[in-house]
Amino acid sequence: KTISADDVRASIIRAGASLGWLIQENGPGKLVGTLVLRKHTAVVDIPYSVTSFSIIYKSSIELDEADGQIHKNYNGWVSNLKKGIYTQLLLI
After folding, report:
1. Torsions phi, psi of 91, nearest 5?
2. Among residues 47, 40, 76, 72, which one has the least CA distance to residue 84?
3. What SS3 state is found at 6?
4. What crossing angle do the helices spanning 74-90 and 5-18 adopt, rounded to 10°?
5. Residue 81 CB burial class (10 angstroms; 0-12, 13-18, ≥19)
6. 10-residue mean pLDDT series, the chain (92 residues)
7. How high is the pLDDT of residue 1?
8. How far apart are CA 71 and CA 8, in angstroms?
9. C-alpha neighbours within 13 Å on the C-beta side of residue 56
10. Which of these, 52, 51, 1, 58, lies nearest to 24 by C-alpha position?
């Protein structure tokens, strides 16, 4: 089956929602994901197209981001989001 940009967008939103991320539109081919856990907040940009997507750090609260370092759990949260998106894409 041919995958459309709308399929990719919907897959990102479904994956995010299943993991507690709030995914919002930020223009054509652009989403913003926000994860709030206890006192921690992570915000990522998620540009996407028919052929690819990226998860890019945008900002954070209480994640000790400085000098290229960030809270140890951040990478796990982003990795889980990426895996969830791939899983949703496979279900199309």
Report:
1. -80, -10
2. 76
3. helix
4. 130
5. buried
6. 94 98 97 96 98 97 92 96 98 94
7. 77
8. 29
9. 10
10. 58
Residue 14 is predicted with a pLDDT of: 98
Extract the tokens encoding 17.
């929602």
Place of tokens 């540009």: 47
In the beta sheet, which residues pair with residue 42? 35, 60
pTM for this entry: 0.94
In single-letter form, the type of residue at position 3 comes to I
Burial class (CB in 10 A: 0-12, 13-18, 19+), 77: buried
Best CA proximity match to 33, nearest among 70, 80, 81:
81
